[in-house]
Amino acid sequence: MVSVAKDELYRLIEALPEKETPVVKRFLEFLLIQSKNEDQAWLEAELGELPPYDWGPEGPPKGKPVRYETGIGLIIEGGKQ
User: How far, rounded to the nearest angstrom, does the alpha carbon of residue 29 sit from its chain's CA centroid?
Assistant: First the structure.
């Protein structure tokens, strides 16, 4: 998807005839509602029914242990080594 700067959107809206701005408003409201509905669907989805992920013959990648520190977040044990 192509990224469009908000300034460009403002310019396009400003160039519209006044009678067309309600149409644009309804369309933008529709997009917001659609986005919220998609988010809600993911939040309410029963993800436990998904099949387990197939990591392939090598299994899950090896990682480093982490710990959570309040106010900082996740800290990788052993630093950046």
Answer: 18
- Confirm if 74 and 67 have CB atoms less than 8 A apart: yes
Q: Three-class SS of residue 3?
A: coil
CB 41 within 8 A of CB 33: no
Q: Determine what percent of the chain is predicted with pLDDT higher than 90.
A: 48
Answer whether residue 77 shows pLDDT above 90: no
CA-closest candidate to residue 28, choices 43, 5, 9: 9
Q: How long a stretch of residues is the chain?
A: 81
* Gyration radius of the chain over CA positions: 23
Does position 38 have pLDDT exceeding 90, yes or no?
no
pLDDT value at residue 58: 92
